[in-house]
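hey can u run this one w/ pantoate bound, need the structure tokens asap thx
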Amino acid sequence: VITLLRKTNDLKSFLKDIPEGQRGIVPTMGNLHEGHLDLVRASIKDNPYTIVTIFVNPKQFGPNEDFDRYPRTLEDDINKLKGLSLGENKIIVYAPESNDEIYPTGFDTLIKVEKLTSILCGAKRPGHFDGVTTVVYQLFKHTGATNAYFGQKDYQQVKVVERMTKDLHLDVNIKMIPIRRDDDQMAMSSRNQYLTQETRKEGLELTHTVLNFAELLKTTSWLNAKDKINKRLEEVIKDERWDYLEFLDADNLQEVTPETKKVAILGALRLQKARLIDNRLVDITYA
Ligand code: PAF
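ok here u go:
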């Protein structure tokens, strides 16, 4: 059974009689693809009620970003959710009908995680993560979910949301679901549809760079891989299409140290009509 709710008050009334421990939330901006559906499947497995939120959040887009042309496909999204096998479980789609449902007139509050948002995508998209945490906090609050599902593709987002959840003592378990990839190994993203055949080929440079270094670090120690990594980093710095390529401790997104167990290889490549991100996590030996 799928229920569509378009107002925050309707959501609250609907959830009144459902115990909090039975609710999972999958926050999305819609235009669902298999990557999103993996999150929904994971939530269905864990929770009798899954609340899929669909809201293109204006606060997380920069002034020159794609807010206006971001694909809004509510009907298709609902049809895709209808295709999932639910058993006894229920899906509630919460798709606020206007921004006011989330941001009342005069809205003047910001939830900001500080250090973690000053690097990677945070450095390139000022204010983006503040918009994410400000909306995610509200979505957690409105749904009262105890489990929340996020995709690994936005690895920094997962880390930022985890930090907010800890810092604000929210009783929400953050679950990260692995990246879903297309046949050519590009990470699925709603923004991939901005790509032409040509720019998709160009975008695979990101996919392959991240993949190749993950393969390298599986067979070579961190110190032995350092030369190759540094050489590639020098190339990337000179290439203005690359927003970043970074190798960081996957736990805290700080520099790799001898204590690092897992490295996150993270990249962002800016193409003509789309900005793509990707990452891989790999267990390393240091020396
Ligand atoms: O990952 C996304 O789609 C968005 O950043 C999220 C988490 C739904 C917040 O708007």
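The pocket of pantoate is lined by residues 27-29, 57, 60, 132, 135-136, 154, 157 (CB under 6 Å). anyway lmk if its weird
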